[in-house]
What we know:
The structure is a homotetramer. By secondary structure, chain A is an alpha+beta fold. Chain A is built from ten helices and eleven strands. Chain A is globular and about 65 Å long. A four-stranded mixed sheet of chain A has the order 10-9-8-11. A three-stranded antiparallel sheet of chain A has the order 5-6-7, with no helix packed on it.
Amino acid sequence: MTATVSQSYLPNSGSAYARRYSEVRAQSATLTARLSPEDQQVQSMPDVSPTKWHLGHTTWFFETFILRPQRPDYRVFDSSFNYLFNSYYEAVGPRQLRAERGLITRPAQDEVLAYRAHVDAALADFLDELTAGELEDLRYLLELGLHHEQQHQELILMDIKHVLSRNPFGPSYRKKEPAAVYGTHALHWFDVPGGVYRIGHADDGHFTFDNEMPAHEVVLGDFALASRCVTNGEYLEFVEDGGYKRAEFWHSDGWALINREGWRAPLYWQPDKNGNWAEFTFAGVCPLYHDAPVCHVSFYEAAAYAAWAGTRLPTEAEWEVAARHFEVARRPRAGANQMASGYLRPIPAGEADPEAPQGMLGDVWEWTESAYSPYPGFQAAPGAVGEYNGKFMINQMVLRGASCATAPGHTRITYRNFFYPHQRWPFAGFRLAA
Amino acid sequence: MTATVSQSYLPNSGSAYARRYSEVRAQSATLTARLSPEDQQVQSMPDVSPTKWHLGHTTWFFETFILRPQRPDYRVFDSSFNYLFNSYYEAVGPRQLRAERGLITRPAQDEVLAYRAHVDAALADFLDELTAGELEDLRYLLELGLHHEQQHQELILMDIKHVLSRNPFGPSYRKKEPAAVYGTHALHWFDVPGGVYRIGHADDGHFTFDNEMPAHEVVLGDFALASRCVTNGEYLEFVEDGGYKRAEFWHSDGWALINREGWRAPLYWQPDKNGNWAEFTFAGVCPLYHDAPVCHVSFYEAAAYAAWAGTRLPTEAEWEVAARHFEVARRPRAGANQMASGYLRPIPAGEADPEAPQGMLGDVWEWTESAYSPYPGFQAAPGAVGEYNGKFMINQMVLRGASCATAPGHTRITYRNFFYPHQRWPFAGFRLAA
Amino acid sequence: MTATVSQSYLPNSGSAYARRYSEVRAQSATLTARLSPEDQQVQSMPDVSPTKWHLGHTTWFFETFILRPQRPDYRVFDSSFNYLFNSYYEAVGPRQLRAERGLITRPAQDEVLAYRAHVDAALADFLDELTAGELEDLRYLLELGLHHEQQHQELILMDIKHVLSRNPFGPSYRKKEPAAVYGTHALHWFDVPGGVYRIGHADDGHFTFDNEMPAHEVVLGDFALASRCVTNGEYLEFVEDGGYKRAEFWHSDGWALINREGWRAPLYWQPDKNGNWAEFTFAGVCPLYHDAPVCHVSFYEAAAYAAWAGTRLPTEAEWEVAARHFEVARRPRAGANQMASGYLRPIPAGEADPEAPQGMLGDVWEWTESAYSPYPGFQAAPGAVGEYNGKFMINQMVLRGASCATAPGHTRITYRNFFYPHQRWPFAGFRLAA
Amino acid sequence: MTATVSQSYLPNSGSAYARRYSEVRAQSATLTARLSPEDQQVQSMPDVSPTKWHLGHTTWFFETFILRPQRPDYRVFDSSFNYLFNSYYEAVGPRQLRAERGLITRPAQDEVLAYRAHVDAALADFLDELTAGELEDLRYLLELGLHHEQQHQELILMDIKHVLSRNPFGPSYRKKEPAAVYGTHALHWFDVPGGVYRIGHADDGHFTFDNEMPAHEVVLGDFALASRCVTNGEYLEFVEDGGYKRAEFWHSDGWALINREGWRAPLYWQPDKNGNWAEFTFAGVCPLYHDAPVCHVSFYEAAAYAAWAGTRLPTEAEWEVAARHFEVARRPRAGANQMASGYLRPIPAGEADPEAPQGMLGDVWEWTESAYSPYPGFQAAPGAVGEYNGKFMINQMVLRGASCATAPGHTRITYRNFFYPHQRWPFAGFRLAA
């Protein structure tokens, strides 16, 4: 997030960059095309935002941080949108209460789409006229806008899944899921020797969020990482062993929570007519897929399972060191990335790979044992975009990897995702360490 | 609500009745035609239901209580709708939680309209084939269905007004209100002598809800009723005299409420840029209309104003006796009924009428000092429709009259409307007694 | 509450009045003597006040409304007590939040007793010096203070019963209850003919609260009143018949409440080790006393029982007319008044009395179907004591009669007690009407 | 917490150990002697426990974990106390809800003191008869019981300060505080070179809680630590600079919290009649002591101050490494330990010490930037006492050092105290790092 970020791997002409911009933005339209105005309106809990709001907010980001400062002649589409579509930037002024985003019936969906078209056209014009030097100066903000768009693509999927699940008859987002042909394998362990390791994002010109920097050293002991994530089938054993009724496995806060809320299984699990577990998916309610990674669990549930299994979750440093050690970024497995290939649910790990743990960059975000704290020497970016990460560095836990709903091109082994330990609507599962 | 209700004033052939049915139902379509799918989706507070839900629920009423029992060959449109559109009939089975009606994105608006068309067609067929005798037997249920539809027409207006008001930029339901040419007059009093009076709905064959029966005697002392409702201008004097800051005028529960909620004026009043009071209306935010009846106040506010003014509210018996005494049902004033003539806000009372109080059957529902209790000898109707009124006879206050949003043909001087004393989203104002 | 109240039945010399004062005040000391400082400190729910607070508050009443205005040389015991012990008199200034009375650890119990002694001594001096004329002028306020003290004696018992019940091992207020030798009788009905009746407190010089006035006429139809209150045994039949699981008997608000709170029986009922019902009493947990009136039920439960039994509750007018008709005030039954004779729980009605319904002025307050509203022509007393009743006339229901915890000399057939329909900690039961 | 903990520095005969036991236990009695039964009864918020409960609970710990397992002939004082005085040990059975500890009026204070005497006598007998070998085996549990008692001594002070503060007239715990003669000095910095350091408690036979182990290596960069904690005077500058009104300094959760709760200053600060800040202390309300460390601030407030000052809080590793580096454990300053010397409020740091930072083991617990997580290789102790620490390792932040309310002999530089980031009733302040 500094002036030295060159990002020379990116398109270096405005018109080439315009193509990149257009591709990323189009993905949002693709994901939401099948949703009705009603589907896009609803906020099913305060954590969730309406689809329509996501589409407006990501557009507002480009309007506010690129077009308005850079183009004096830019015509603002609707001045009220600054209030409606600001998410949390205190420096940009007052805004719609988060929990009341679902009350905004006007603008309607078609007006939001017109807003997107207006901003996209203005940005295409702007990029076309940009010199290479001007592009260089704006690259970080442009990339931030696109990565931000990609984050909201995953949020759109998380949120609409929750919205649809609250419809009493579990309607589907799409007719059916593509068939997955993988089974899974018996879990085994990969050893990593202890030592002093470097983690975090090197200042190498590639895009990164500020929270991944600076790179720094950590000391680790010897540890082992599981060859794959815990599966639905394994998690079911925990459930059937009374896992949700035995305090000894739970953090005190987690135990209070599951009893207060009556949790007895992951978020979208539900018993079918015969008393078997089924799960709500984008294709409606389906039988539980035993070989697939368990998903939509909170940190508390992940940690309780680990305690029941006599192991633990990895720290984020361990996860990243292992990912580097086994070069997982160079080993995309067949089938991934899911969003690109059409899978919007985690799929089984398949046969054992003797070389490296599987699924570290797809399927489910993996809860770690690490609280979301600033790296030593962390500096938030200056200005309003400095509110992007730093002010959330309390009360949340780090998740690593990526999920079946993460946008293509949005994965990095240094990526630090974060959620509160009680949140289950992300595509979150976990992997054991020992 | 007994077998002796003949309702001979109603159409006595099926096909004639089909026209009546069609006219009432069409009014719902007219009221909602200008609302987008998004507008019709939102539930802005638990008391409010989405427009789409109202359209479905009133249709469900005819399907459930007429078509299903009467027509063995009737094809149910969608069996899941029994769950979605049951409001509170415990006897008809489980149902969507009231506070979660806004989560139902499926069926979409167009499916609900198709549901209406399906039921309307089946009912038209059914009515066409009905003999006069069969019609006679079903008249009470049919009329109940239509009066129920009319009640929901007013609820649709109450609810959408609240929904639109929660949009931060106060969008309008329609471009503008028709111009009203009335001023008001200095309040004067109409005396009614004390004595034993009969109130309630006589068992005379005209439609009535069960809660208006049986007719019975009450003893009243001498009293006087105001010539018109309290106006915005008068209420503003109360506000400016510190009415919301002086405990001595308030019920204890009301005082706690207005301080907890920070109420300082009626629901839709808001200061404009210059610090003058404006009000949110169906035509957007307008300057406060001083001569019009104050509207969207709670019982607590009505009672506090009365205490400040050194008077009181009438009881429901006083209201009804006065309405009979001055034959207000025979004196519709020009301009009313508002829904028919296009006014969707209360309008000023105009010049003094020496013969009778004005506006008792229009403009605003009038809070009374009477708790909503069963009349002596009250019997709820048998079966599920018996849940229509009786089970709500606690904690609520009676309002009398009708409002600018009440459907044409839905007013009676025996009509007992009821709301909780804190509710302000009805079109409710008040008239003083002494 | 007017100047014409002569109350000539009361002591007409200051020193004689001083004895009356001292007797009433001593009863408070007797009731609380067995309670530890800890028992007297706790507020187990917002409705409950600590015993210590009651003892201070009733004393503050005499200090504030008699001594301070009448005795310029009176030395205020502690000026901070005006804040601590004001209950709800807005006109007397700010005060401790009701829900935080239990936080007041200072003054300790012994200081509160010293406060009582200080005020009692000052009042004794004051009364001794009073001329008959001066006494006449002050009688209403003095009597109001004593009746207020008596009301708080009942509140002390209601509240400490709740406090002790929240101790997990159900400690007792006293070792045991006196043995009651009564059985009960099969319920029969007393008919009262319809007509125009006068109810309310005649302005006859005897003490009354302002809410019992003015006397006024009502029209009643023929009705019948039950010979006794519903018993624990009868109520148990309702429970065992699924009364708490069948929506058809309940008001909508009541049904929501019992499900939200998980109510399945009256407040202090609890299953014993063998699955039989027991009840928490002042003598600890005892087997359920089947013949005694059911007690500690809410209005909702009373009304649901009546619906289950196919009858209803009486209105307050019916209750009072019947009490007058059968002259129940002249027929105190043996055993009553309980507080005087040592029974602090409702006792069985005994054998049938062919002349009059039994237990109308003792055992349990009887819920009526009447909302607590002002009588026609009601005027609150002027000044701060005018806040005594009027501002509570909303959302509450009237109870008639008296209970086993009502102070001797504090019963009248015109007495209007009132509670919210959900409250169960009063000694409240009910009697059927038809 | 392993079998190898020899703790040979402790008394090695039972009778000598009995003296240690008696001294620690007596300190609890001394601290509470001035509190009335009422003071000891109240729970002013769910975080707070009544004094009486603390006295019972610490006694229950010895009874449950020492006497009952070790002495078959031990007579349990009252079997109901296992329910009442269990804090959170799921393995020991059900227990009184934490938020309802204030409802326990029975046992009264004198019974709790009798319980303490009973257990103390039994334990004295037991210790007297113990062989050195038996003592060796039990030492860890005995020490755990005493350290637990000392923790509750600090909790007693935290809690009673909160209870007394909620009394509207701010009563005092004692007449006055001893005079403190210290001023403070201009803040300067102590540099610590980066490197690989060892932190945590070495397994050296001295007592430690399980959460301080195992010792392990960390990598630190160069850093500097402030010579003293931030003072009231410095914090006041932040307040007066609009610190509580400027979002840019706050974590998002903290900003939401201070606005929801209306926080504008540390917990016990309050304006006096002249608008100057005063603070509630154990000696009542006193003028703000500008030179003393600020106390009773939440983590959010500490972090916001640091952001305002352009610095940060130390991590717990930095704090411990600095404490070791400057050998602060060997440099007790005059005046400390406060509890021993009678100061129950933080006192100024005094003149600058060129050798080491001041006040690291007294005055206030110091918030760090570190979330409370398990050390690498952490193992909870087996059995019920394993619930002592591990299950709380989520959502809380580590505080280091000790406070003016920490018991003598209860400080260690490896000590990890922890609270939720919103909690302010601990004696918590902070020290800056850079």
